[in-house]
């Protein structure tokens, strides 16, 4: 079984970086990387996306060997464009369920909002355990349920309202892993110990309601699902979503609450 492959390429990857990053991923990336202590010599990042976490890892651990992986080459391409060439970072397209690395190879494994997309999560967690060194840490984050991410909940309401007979389903995936018991069970059943799962409340920002609407309609795989149904509706969907965001968060310099879970386990 291969890792799930939602459409993160082309314009979607570009909009993901430009519009979704500040709103949805930058504040959570800062929190996640801030939890890594010590001076790891080797770091593996799973589902690196456009490099929101990778950049912070490089800044905090400039001497570490960082291996940044993602199943979507389009995301890696954007990350490399943003960061430029760096001999301390190896970019690699890889399936988290079948990692192409030796056992006991990394001090830290980190994954921001990627595990929800792994069809066989237990297999991926066992792979993480395998490639970690003894005493190493697996650190990952998942979103809380969608009703606790108002900005995403509104986007889902607006998009699905345009396709009542065949609503796009993508938003169900990223917000599907909100039970701490599932995190604990996966870690425990993979061999990890000293397990911790915490609910973290943060705040995302965007320059405007319009930018946020662009991110939530084009900067994620819901864009492909909209286009498959009726691409001509995209401008209307974006306007409706911009109006909803403006009403709830304001037209400019919007701030939105974010709720996530951060979990860790030691080998």
Major sheet strand order: 3-2-1-4-5-7-6
Q: What gyration radius follows from the Cα positions, in whole Å?
A: 18 Å
CATH C-level label of the domain at 11-146 and 172-205 and 256-266: Alpha Beta
Sheet with the most strands, sense and barrel status = 7 strands, mixed
CATH superfamily of the domain at 11-146 and 172-205 and 256-266: Vaccinia Virus protein VP39
Mean pLDDT: 94
DSSP helix fraction: 40-55%
CATH third-level topology of the domain at 11-146 and 172-205 and 256-266: Rossmann fold
What's the total number of strands? 7
* Class per helix and strand makeup: alpha/beta
**CA(first)-CA(last) distance:** 25 Å
**What's the SSE pattern?**
HEHEHEEHEHHEHHHE
In the predicted model, the low-confidence regions spanning at least 5 consecutive residues are: 1-5
What general form does the structure show? Answer: globular
Count every helix, treating DSSP H or I runs of 4 or more residues as helices.
9
Task: Tell me the CATH architecture of the domain at 11-146 and 172-205 and 256-266.
Answer: 3-Layer(aba) Sandwich
**Proportion of β residues?**
15-25%
What does the model show?
The structure is a single chain. It is globular and about 55 Å long. The chain has a domain at 11-146 and 172-205 and 256-266: Vaccinia Virus protein VP39 (Rossmann fold, 3-Layer(aba) Sandwich). The chain contains 9 helices and 7 strands; from the N terminus they run αβαβαββαβααβαααβ. Helix 4 (121-131) links the parallel strand 4 (106-112) and strand 5. It has 267 residues and is of the alpha/beta class. It has a 7-stranded mixed sheet with strand order 3-2-1-4-5-7-6.
């Amino acid at each position: 079984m291969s890792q799930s492959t939602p459409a993160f390429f082309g314009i979607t990857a570009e909009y993901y970086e430009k519009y979704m990053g500040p709103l949805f991923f930058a504040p959570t990336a800062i929190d996640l990387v801030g939890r890594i202590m010590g001076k790891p010599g080797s770091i593996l990042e799973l589902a690196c996306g456009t490099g929101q976490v990778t950049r912070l890892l490089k800044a905090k651990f400039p001497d570490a060997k960082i291996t940044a992986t993602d199943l979507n080459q389009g995301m890696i391409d954007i990350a490399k464009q943003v960061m430029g060439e760096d001999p301390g970072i190896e970019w690699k397209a890889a399936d988290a369920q079948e990692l192409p690395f030796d056992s006991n190879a990394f001090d830290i494994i980190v994954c921001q909002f990627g595990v929800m997309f792994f069809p066989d999560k237990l297999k991926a967690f066992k792979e993480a355990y395998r490639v970690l060194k003894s005493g190493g840490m697996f650190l990952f984050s998942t979103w809380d349920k969608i009703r606790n991410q108002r900005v995403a909940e509104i986007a889902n309401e607006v998009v699905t309202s345009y396709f009542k007979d065949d609503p796009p389903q993508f938003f169900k995936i990223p917000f599907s892993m909100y039970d701490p018991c599932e995190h604990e069970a996966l870690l425990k059943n993979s061999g990890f110990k000293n397990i911790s799962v915490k609910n973290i409340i943060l705040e995302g920002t965007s320059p405007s309601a319009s930018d946020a609407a662009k991110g939530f309609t084009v900067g994620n795989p819901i864009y492909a699902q909209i286009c498959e149904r009726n691409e001509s509706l995209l401008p209307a969907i974006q306007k409706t979503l911009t109006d909803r965001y403006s009403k709830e968060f304001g037209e400019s310099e919007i701030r939105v609450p974010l709720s996530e879970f951060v979990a860790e386990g030691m080998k």
